[in-house]
Every structure is written in structure tokens, then in C-alpha cells.
Amino acid sequence: MSRDDLPARIFPSFDALKDASGFALGVSGGSDSIALFHIFSAWRAASSDNRPAFVFAVDHGMRSEAADECRDVMALATRLGLQSQTLTLSKKPKNMSEARDARYAALISAMRSHGLSHLLLGHQADDQAETQLYRWVSGTGIDGLGAMRPMSERDGITLVRPLLAERRKDLRRHLVELGVDWNDDPTNADTDHVRTRMRRTLAGLEKDGFDPRRAAAFARRAQRASDALNSAVDGIVNDHVHVALWGDVSITRETFLDLPEELQIRLLARLLHIARGHNPRHLEKLESALDALLQGSDGTTTVAGCDVRFIDQTLRVAREARHLPDPIIASAVASTRWDARYAITFHGMSSGAPGENWMVAPGQALGLDRHAILKDLPEHARNTVPVLFDGKKDVVFSPFDVEQSIFNAEFVPASVESFNLVRESSAAWRPLSVGKIE
What we know:
Elements: H1 5-15, E1 23-26, H2 31-47, E2 53-59, H3 66-80, E3 83-88, H4 96-114, E4 118-120, H5 125-137, H6 142-145, E5 151-154, E6 157-160, H7 168-178, H8 194-206, H9 212-240, E7 242-243, E8 249-252, H10 253-257, H11 261-276, H12 283-295, E9 300-303, E10 306-311, E11 314-319, E12 328-329, E13 335-338, E14 342-346, E15 359-362, H13 379-384, E16 386-389, E17 395-401, E18 407-411, E19 428-433
Parallel strand pairs: 1-2, 1-4, 2-3, 4-6
Antiparallel strand pairs: 5-6, 7-8, 8-11, 9-10, 10-11, 12-15, 13-14, 14-18, 15-16, 16-17, 17-19, 18-19
Helix pairs in contact: 1-2, 2-7, 5-8, 5-9, 9-11, 11-12
């Protein structure tokens, strides 16, 4: 392979990012990210692209060599004419999973401060095969076998992996031809880490003819199947799912039962995501919940913080009245996301402004589920909706009185941006002096 073959294959991935406001490169100093760095720099020069581009290196505080490696990355960025910054984690991660989550959080925070939309990552075909094997061992489904996607989204940031079809050995060969060095992370040889064990397993299989590029091809096929199934669920949600103002999610029993089992599982996951605000990740728990729902004597189950049950001719998914948020002081925040379900905004009042004694809490927590102002809600919903009240509980604000108010609370389903869900208009908090709790 000549030096020019690799960039020629990668450049189109960058050409396609026309909607990017700016780029961030996560560079560790290892061969993969250094190769990505050089190829991106070459593309940027060849295309005369002048959008903002930053190089970020993250010091996790887990290895003494990390500070020097970050300095090497900063120096390389200076030589190649890109802005750079070292991000140092404030808290040392306990394990590799925590390190990954903290790394993404730091990168995304830094990107937002610089107005950057796309994060370029150096994952390649060998990484893809390791991810696939790890997920297979963990008991994943078709989605997990799709492993990493060339483009995905995390917390509003687009993650781009231009090297997924390339082998690590080819990236290193390219760097050798350029005369560029890289750092080898010693933890990659530590067999205490599951990734290292997976890598060694794959190396043994390669001697028998296994090629990580085949794993990459399988990942693409799994992604294609997953996309088709999820597209079918999108259509079902758009056409048949109703979301009540207080957060119940429902679909007719007949529509649900007419679906193949795979689509029932995926639709159940989507309903839970909408109702709870979190995406349920454990396939086995979803399968068990579906079995309980269909095979149980009462057609009821609980999963992912939700109560799921058939009520007459309807399947209803509702927030379970357990593990609800602790009360929060209204004056402490201007706005907040409550229980991952409600967007709450405090605009202030000319008189009686929320002070230290004004609280937001679920109706159940303080007995406010018995309050007359919530009497029109289904009984289960009174327990799980947020209410705003003064310290004496003499004045209570309900999120379901639609008259004009300076306190707003809106149920915002987790999937609302992706689907045309049927839901009511925005609700408003309205102060009512209604006396003591009934």
C-alpha cells in the first residue's frame, strides 16, 4: 500500500461533513488517533477547509505517562497548525468504563464551549471486531452486533469514525511511511482488561483465516437490519401511539398483539423510553417483561421504572411511583429537567416569588396526590407528576392548569424530536390558594 492510498479512501468521509460547524479530534497519542490526525490535517489542507478545528487530549489521571503524552499531542497540533487543549479530569475514574464516560463528557463540554459540532474518533476495524466480540459474549441482540457506527450521536454531538473499515496495521504502516511516531498505551497489554483478552482471542482467530474486515462487514449488515426494524417501529409510534399530558404512553391492545415478537420488544423499549426518559438497555429484561405481560395472569409487569399493563383494550405504560426525585428548592434553579421527563422553567413572580420554602416534588412524596388541584388526573398520575408548593402547602401550583402563568412545566417525551407523537399543548403552572390538603 502506498502512502496515498489510505488518505484517498478516508477523504470522502470528511467531504460528506458539510453540515459541521466545526471539528474536534480526540487524540490520545496512539497510532490510530495519530493517523486520523494526520489524514484529517492533509484533507483540511487539500480542501482549503477553514472551519474551526480543535485537537483535544484527555488526561484521565490513571497513568503517570499521560501528562507527557498529552504534551506530545499538543506539540504535534502546533506543528500541523491546529488549535489544541489538554483536558484533565477532576476525578480519577475507577475503571475503564468510567474513564470512557468521563472522557466523552469532558470532550463534549469542551466542544460546546468552542461551538464545535462533530467529534472525529480513531476507532478502526480491529476495534470494531473487539466490540462485536465483547457484545456477543455479553449476550447482545442484533443492535449490539452492529457495534460502532460510522456516525452516531451523543448528547447532541455527532460522533464520526472515518477509520472503521481500516486495519490498525495499515494505519501504522502509513505513519511509518510518514516518519511519524506514536505512543503505545501499556494498559493495552494488561490482561486484567477485557479488551486485551478480546484482542488476543481475535489474534488467534486471525491465524485461522479470520479478518476483522469481515467483522466490519457483518456489523454493517447488522446495522442495516437494525435500521429496518427501527424504521418499522417509528411508523408504529407515529401512527398508533398516544402520549398523555401527564406522561402515560398507550397503544391499542390489538395493534400491539398483532406485531411480531421482535417488533413487540422494540416497541416496548420505545414506549418505556418515552414514558421514563431513559433508553432501556438490557435486552434480557425487556424479553422477561414481555413474557410477563403476555403470559402472566393479570397482564401486568414493571420494568425500567415503569408500570406496564393491559387495561381493557389498551396497553398503557406509566411512570412507576418508586424512586422518584427528591424535592428540590425552586429558587435554586431557573430551569431544570425533572425526573428526565419534565422540562420545568421558573420565570419568577412579582409577589410571592419562590424562595427557600418553595419546593418541587412528586405529588406522592408529600401527600399532595390527595390535593384537589390534581383531582382530574388518573389516580396513578397524581403520585408521579411534579407539583410546586410553598412550605406550608397552602399554595399549590399544578402543571395541568392551562391558564397563563409564570411557572411552566411540560412533559417532554424522550423521543419527541424523532417522532410526531400525539400530545397535548404545553401546560403551565398556575398559583391557586386552595387551602389545606383534602
